[in-house]
Design a protein that fits this description.
By secondary structure, the chain is mostly helical. The protein is built from eight helices and no strands. It has one domain. Helix 1 runs antiparallel to helix 7 and helix 3 packs antiparallel against helix 7.
Length: about 200
Amino acid sequence: MFRGQFKITKREEKGIADVCLFTVMLYVKAWFQAPHAPSASLTDLQLLKDIITYRQNNAAVAEVALKKISGYLWYLSEELVAFAFFDDRVSVDTKRLMVAALHKTGPENPPKRAVLEPALISSKQLEDFVTENTKRFFDNFGIPADFLERDVDTWPTDEAYMTAKATASNCHVVNDIAERGVALMDEFNKLHTNDEQQKQ
């Protein structure tokens, strides 16, 4: 729309088009879902999987995006993945697998954000991030976790679950939005021009 106001090379024009296509095809959906904490874990995992698939469209953009997004996987950490228990998009079967995974031993001091090998992303599911450390989430938020002992099918009518879900839903992932957007655009900006005037 404004390209007539700037002198840009064909390479720069292609770079802008690449950023726009990636943003419209993948990033906008994740961007709008990001503030809703219960959706964060599944949103992050799905975005990673979408980026892996996007390699077929534009491998260079996919690699840069994957590298940047991989540094912000707070909501796939062993503790914060518990938000997914309250995400209506997560299937009952997956939630059952997540509950079962709560018995899996985790490290004493788990990392604050997940670290994933790109080759393994496509095969990862939410339950793969759950360990006994995930229970710390409930302690940290002061949420009773006794609903985990009841069948997942009963959760929508379980008062304890609904109270916990309300608490989780009132959390907003404000910093995450800003960090992701600034970091991703900054990285793309560096790739396409070194001219300070063009960057501005």
